[in-house]
Amino acid sequence: MSEQARVLLEDGTEFFGRYFTAVRDCFGEIVFNTSMSGYQEVLTDPSYENQCVVMTYPLIGNVGINNADMESNRIYLNALLCKEYIDTPSNWQSVQTLKSYLNHHQRIGVQGLDTRAITLHIRSHGAQRVLITSDIKTPTNELVQKINHQPAMSGANLAKKVSVSEPYEWAGGSSDVKYRVAVLDCGVKHNILRHLAQRGCRCDILPLDKAAELLATTTYDGLFISNGPGDPEPVNDAIEIIKHYLGKLPIFGICLGHQLIALALGGQTYKLKFGHHGINHPVKHLATGKVEITSQNHGFCVDLNSLPDVTETHVNLYDNTNEGFRHNHHPLFSVQYHPESAPGPCDSAYLFDEFVQLMEPTHVHA
Questions:
Q1: 49 and 175 assigned to the same domain
Q2: Is residue 340 located within the same domain as residue 214?
Q3: Which sign does the torsion angle of CA 245, 247, 251, 256 carry?
């Protein structure tokens, strides 16, 4: 039988399961994800940097891992926690088990947990720091002290940690390139780049620490601000770039990009109690009255009342938090959710079309 795993939260609450991967300790922020599918996309989403994710769907691993559904080149979360792990995948695309994939990237998997109890605790007491360990003997208060010495999610510039180190190009093999888009990489997902490429965009993915210089020396048709992990406030490189190009280029932001745009416009953000993580969040498009089924992965939110000169475009029907806005004067809009993830499946793809339409009157590249 596999070794016992102790999941200890910073408030002293603990749960017990068993490792289904190699045994190792890790820290992180514990959150829950309500997706019934797509654990591979969760694993490879850079927005999950430094998090330990509880999957509320009880059976995880049943479709294995394939080569087509990666959202990046590696696993970003620290641990995947579930009720029951399935080690015999049944899917024609599967090339390896979830266990082998996690072990290859030296990440933890724990099963046998009461995921309902963990989720209810997080909902009641909020997302918090966690220690996952095989040490079941050390007193709880001693381990909680170790947790308290770990950095909190608020104030951490995780986007800088996951941003690409060198610029690269993504055209998706398209021969019909009409626009050149600068992608400010705070942890961009591959499917965002696929959507842009399908619409005739050549994307230059720019590192946060080099983007200002690269933008100044190259002519672009539009600026895209990507998703990413953690607190938007410390990501000053991105905020300053957005301020500089406001009104000079069409700008589109997703998730963390949405929050960074709000800060650049003089607004404020705040941390949600337990965040939004899943692919079944209803969002109302205020202009049409239509409800989009959306993918969400964020722990911070925009305070719309702090923003000048914008019009709210989307609202979350779970808690009425802001899900999108458009600037009243400049070619700029952003959304908090992930239109590229397609849980709808195509409810939100129009946003990429709107970005292309903003670039149409002024595009300079054939």
A1: no
A2: yes
A3: positive
Place 174 in a pLDDT band, splitting at 50, 70 and 90.
Answer: low
Catalytic one of 49, 292, 323, 340: 340
- For the segment 61-66, the average pLDDT, to the nearest whole number, is 97
- Annotated catalytic residue 213: no
Indicate whether 124 and 238 sit together in one domain. no
Q: Is the pLDDT of residue 172 over 80?
A: no
pLDDT (0 to 100) of residue 176: 83
Burial class of residue 139 in the structure, from the number of CB atoms within 10 Å of its CB (0-12 exposed, 13-18 middle, 19+ buried):
exposed
Mean per-residue pLDDT, 304-320: 97
Domain identity same for 109 and 177: no
pLDDT digits (tens, 9 = 90+) for 330-364: 999 999 999 998 887 889 999 999 999 999 875 55
- Our answer to whether residue 338 is catalytic in this structure is yes
**On the CB side of 79, how many CA atoms lie within 13 Å of its CA?**
32
* Residue of 255, 277, 281, 323 marked active site: 255
Number of H helices, E strands in the chain: 10, 19
Which one of the listed residues 190, 195, 285, 338 is annotated catalytic?
338
Q: Is residue 153 part of a domain?
A: no
Quote the CA–CA distance of 260 and 248 in Å, as a whole number: 17
Cα(77)–Cα(47) distance, rounded to whole angstroms?
8
Active site annotation includes 255: yes
138 and 162 within one domain: no
Q: Where are the alpha helices (DSSP H) in the chain?
A: 39-43, 98-104, 115-125, 140-148, 158-162, 190-198, 211-216, 236-245, 256-264, 350-359
Tokens 């049943």 correspond to 62
